[in-house]
């Protein structure tokens, strides 16, 4: 008992001491200087133009970061070694080596130096000057997607904007690159010339699938957006005091942080609503904004869910980027500020105050680090932080990426276990409700061993247009692929829930790359013995007559025959088709090696070698077209460099679309679209042989993918074409018939004339002098016993 009392007394005495502990313990990183080898900086020393320092971390490669201040440092190990100041080779001839903006784009670092863009590949240690930027620029912007192995994720990291901050927006020169900044091209947003004000920035908000243009006018700012439905109006205006830096929080959740020395604002929906960050003490709001708190911001750091602020008054503020609101709390004071100091999150709940230190005997700088354990500080009762109400929040979809193709659905599940006697409110949100809709159901799903109730959430995701609950003026164009994130968090979550991260997944409303189309081949030419599969695999080739194909796909006869090699590995054995039966292929949809359905959507065919000995069973009039239908000829005229096979879902316009205003001028032309609402089929000419078809699904509402393939057909049963034209044959047959009738009439009549009798006598005399035939018994003994037919006397 006495021992317990001593322990309790010791604990009571330690509490005030714990509160007096510093925020962090300082240590210095000094490496590579044991032998005092004096390194020299090669090239021009870079420096940052702003009066305050910045630190940029690569959102995907956590150890790579860029420090911007009076010196610039690039680290690949989170500043765990001494570094030489970053420099640019003198061969780049940058002039004044002043950096005004920087951005990590995948495996390269982009820098704006002296109003020009330069690319540094830190993996290959190589420099390049960007091409295509013809006017001075001051800033670059972009984002990074950290889900590897996906094409649209790579597109996010490759896309970069370059612009001159403060330009009049109507005349601003904006450049866009989809090559990670190596090549730029001019970019202009719709109605940009009509806007009034200056350019505060341009950003690609992938969480909303919009390009946002920040317009600044008379100390107010607002965002304009590029695509329907947000392009019809601006976001709500907000105060723009000073030149606000714009940070895009990693994770594609649409979180933006705007800050200046006297201002700190946050948006959770890509700039549509921008609100000031509050300062709290416990559950009470001390200041509704940073400007009211009368503090001067020196450095800001943010990760996916956390926000930290270092002020010139030696104060450190911390907050969470909650799903509903953001606020900061002030930590205990400590002498941690210096002009060169910056903040950097090293992990969840782990913050670091970094300061470069010059060395009098070496050009390499050391780094002073002061790590802050946020969770340990939040346990201080003086901060009046409530205990987290949730013990567990988990889901199998966390930090994963999914694809929802046209007419597809996605089902996700999550598990929440609250603390006893608490009522946390789970909240599911999507960053792009204009394209992605959801429905969530929560129910009790048993208890833990401790007796806590388990709550299960079932989340259904589908395109917003297919839920049938949103107005068309709210939804985005269903033809356009989009991106959205889904986030599951606790609405009233305490700031102490550091380890309870929101569950986030990235959803691509677009092409499912696992899908492909296959042409059904149940009756092949090899199965019926028409063709030999062994011969087809033995460098087989066939001849197309010059009268049957056009290499330019215009239906004109070629000048010479064409020998075509047959690729059996790709095409297999051809489908067997009788020439005189209208035909269309059976198209199957497969995903991950499994059959899904027979495709009923609209598609088109084209023979890859230019064969034109086939047509279609329907005309435009018979297909009930209300406008002139497209065909391969009209597509080729507008295809440009895409080649003859350019007809796809992006340029297809249905002739049954009421919004298609092309008049039906030629109703008798063949209707070249198969599938869909019509029963159109292919009709082959009287020609046997192999056809290799390219097929493309053109229905824009079937899939976001370019579903296309090639297959072969063998047409049989056609008789050879006649040597002479049918007209000549008919004339000759008619003439021969008439001549036979005339001879049948004239010959008996001529035999009764004197000349006829003379001819008749000549033939009788000739026959009488002919040798007699032997008896039948001599010809064949078996005929000797045959009864003799009675002899008939000749009549004279």
Automatic annotation (TrEMBL):
<keyword id="KW-1003">Cell membrane</keyword>
<feature type="signal peptide">
    <location>
        <begin position="1"/>
        <end position="20"/>
    </location>
</feature>
<keyword id="KW-0966">Cell projection</keyword>
<comment type="function">
    <text>Auxiliary component of the CatSper complex, a complex involved in sperm cell hyperactivation. Sperm cell hyperactivation is needed for sperm motility which is essential late in the preparation of sperm for fertilization. Required for CATSPER1 stability before intraflagellar transport and/or incorporation of the CatSper complex channel into the flagellar membrane.</text>
</comment>
<protein>
    <recommendedName>
        <fullName>Cation channel sperm-associated auxiliary subunit delta</fullName>
    </recommendedName>
</protein>
<keyword id="KW-0472">Membrane</keyword>
<feature type="domain" description="CATSPERD Ig-like">
    <location>
        <begin position="390"/>
        <end position="509"/>
    </location>
</feature>
<comment type="similarity">
    <text>Belongs to the CATSPERD family.</text>
</comment>
<keyword id="KW-0744">Spermatogenesis</keyword>
<keyword id="KW-0969">Cilium</keyword>
<keyword id="KW-1133">Transmembrane helix</keyword>
<dbReference type="InterPro" id="IPR028751">
    <property type="entry name" value="CATSPERD/E"/>
</dbReference>
<keyword id="KW-0221">Differentiation</keyword>
<feature type="domain" description="CATSPERD beta-propeller">
    <location>
        <begin position="43"/>
        <end position="370"/>
    </location>
</feature>
<feature type="domain" description="CATSPERD/E C-terminal">
    <location>
        <begin position="539"/>
        <end position="755"/>
    </location>
</feature>
<keyword id="KW-0812">Transmembrane</keyword>
<dbReference type="Pfam" id="PF15020">
    <property type="entry name" value="Beta-prop_CATSPERD"/>
</dbReference>
<dbReference type="InterPro" id="IPR053814">
    <property type="entry name" value="CATSPERD/E_C"/>
</dbReference>
<keyword id="KW-0282">Flagellum</keyword>
<keyword id="KW-0732">Signal</keyword>
<dbReference type="InterPro" id="IPR053813">
    <property type="entry name" value="CATSPERD_beta-prop"/>
</dbReference>
<keyword id="KW-1015">Disulfide bond</keyword>
<dbReference type="InterPro" id="IPR055451">
    <property type="entry name" value="Ig-like_CATSPERD"/>
</dbReference>
<dbReference type="Pfam" id="PF23747">
    <property type="entry name" value="Ig-like_CATSPERD"/>
</dbReference>
<feature type="transmembrane region" description="Helical">
    <location>
        <begin position="728"/>
        <end position="748"/>
    </location>
</feature>
<keyword id="KW-0325">Glycoprotein</keyword>
<dbReference type="Pfam" id="PF22850">
    <property type="entry name" value="CATSPERD-E_C"/>
</dbReference>
<keyword id="KW-0217">Developmental protein</keyword>
């Amino acid at each position: 008992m006495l021992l317990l009392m001593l322990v309790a007394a010791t604990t009571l005495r330690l509490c005030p001491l714990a509160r007096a502990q510093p925020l962090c313990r300082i240590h210095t990183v000094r490496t590579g200087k044991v032998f005092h080898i004096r390194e020299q900086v090669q090239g021009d020393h870079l420096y940052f133009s702003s009066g305050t320092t910045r630190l940029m971390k690569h959102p995907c490669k956590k150890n790579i970061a860029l420090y911007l201040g009076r010196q610039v440092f690039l680290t690949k190990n989170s500043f765990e070694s001494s570094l030489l100041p970053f420099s640019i080779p003198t061969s780049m001839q940058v002039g004044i080596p002043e950096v005004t903006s920087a951005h990590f784009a995948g495996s390269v670092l982009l820098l704006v130096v002296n109003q020009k863009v330069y690319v540094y590949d830190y993996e290959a240690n190589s420099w390049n000057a960007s091409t295509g930027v013809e006017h001075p620029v001051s800033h670059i912007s972009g984002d990074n997607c950290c889900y590897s192995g996906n094409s649209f994720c790579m597109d996010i990291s490759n896309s970069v904007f370059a612009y001159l901050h403060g330009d009049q927006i109507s005349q601003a020169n904006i450049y866009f690159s989809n090559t990670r900044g190596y090549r730029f091209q001019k970019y202009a947003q719709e109605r940009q010339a009509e806007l009034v004000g200056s350019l505060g920035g341009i950003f690609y908000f992938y969480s909303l699938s919009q390009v946002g243009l920040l317009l600044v006018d008379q100390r107010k700012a607002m965002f304009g957006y590029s695509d329907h439905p947000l392009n019809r109006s601006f976001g709500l205006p907000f105060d723009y005091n000073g030149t606000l830096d714009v940070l895009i929080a990693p994770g594609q959740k649409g979180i933006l942080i705007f800050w200046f020395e006297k201002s700190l604002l946050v948006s959770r929906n890509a700039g549509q609503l921008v609100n000031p960050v509050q300062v709290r003490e416990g559950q009470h709001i001390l200041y509704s904004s940073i400007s009211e708190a009368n503090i001067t911001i020196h450095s800001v750091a943010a990760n996916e869910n956390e926000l930290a602020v270092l002020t010139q008054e030696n104060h450190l503020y911390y907050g969470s980027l909650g799903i509903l609101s953001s606020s900061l709390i002030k930590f205990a004071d400590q002498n941690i500020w210096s002009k060169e100091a910056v903040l950097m999150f090293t992990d969840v709940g782990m913050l670091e105050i970094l300061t470069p230190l010059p060395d009098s005997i070496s050009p390499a700088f050391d780094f002073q680090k002061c790590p802050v354990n946020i969770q340990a500080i939040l346990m201080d009762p003086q901060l009046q932080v409530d205990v987290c109400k949730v013990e567990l929040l988990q889901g199998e979809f966390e930090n994963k990426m999914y694809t929802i193709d046209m007419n597809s659905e996605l089902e996700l599940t999550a598990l929440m276990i609250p603390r006893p006697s608490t009522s946390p409110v789970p909240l599911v949100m999507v960053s792009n409700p204009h394209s992605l809709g959801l429905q969530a159901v929560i129910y009790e799903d048993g208890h833990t061993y401790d007796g806590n109730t388990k709550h299960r959430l079932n989340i259904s995701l589908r395109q917003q247009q297919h839920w049938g609950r949103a107005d068309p003026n709210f939804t985005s164009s269903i033809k356009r692929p989009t991106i959205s994130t889904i986030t599951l968090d606790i609405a009233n979550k305490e700031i102490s829930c550091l380890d309870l991260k929101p569950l986030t997944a990235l959803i691509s409303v677009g092409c499912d790359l696992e899908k492909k189309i296959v042409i059904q081949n149940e009756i092949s030419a090899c199965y019926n013995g028409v063709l030999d599969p062994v011969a087809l695999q033995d460098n087989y080739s066939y001849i197309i007559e010059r009268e049957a194909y056009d290499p330019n796909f215009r239906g004109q006869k070629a000048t010479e025959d064409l020998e075509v090699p047959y690729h059996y590995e790709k095409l297999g054995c051809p489908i067997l088709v009788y020439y005189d039966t209208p035909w269309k292929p059976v198209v199957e949809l497969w995903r991950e090696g499994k059959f899904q359905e027979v495709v009923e959507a609209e598609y088109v065919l084209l023979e890859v070698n230019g064969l034109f000995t086939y047509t279609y069973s329907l005309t435009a009039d018979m297909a009930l077209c209300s406008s002139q239908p497209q065909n391969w000829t009209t597509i080729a005229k507008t295809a440009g460099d895409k080649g003859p096979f350019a007809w796809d879902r992006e340029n297809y316009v249905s002739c049954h679309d009421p919004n298609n205003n092309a008049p039906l001028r030629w109703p008798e032309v063949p209707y070249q679209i198969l599938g869909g609402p019509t029963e159109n089929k292919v009709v082959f000419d009287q020609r046997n042989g192999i056809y290799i078809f390219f097929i493309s699904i053109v229905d824009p509402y079937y899939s976001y993918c370019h579903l296309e393939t090639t297959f072969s057909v063998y047409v049989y049963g056609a008789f050879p074409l006649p040597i002479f034209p049918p007209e000549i044959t008919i004339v000759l047959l008619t003439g021969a018939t008439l001549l036979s009738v005339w001879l049948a009439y004239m010959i008996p009549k001529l035999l009764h004339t004197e000349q006829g009798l003379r001819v008749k006598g000549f033939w009788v005399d000739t026959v009488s002098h002919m040798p007699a035939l032997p008896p039948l018994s001599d010809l064949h003994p078996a005929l000797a016993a045959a009864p003799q037919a009675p002899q008939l006397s000749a009549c004279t």
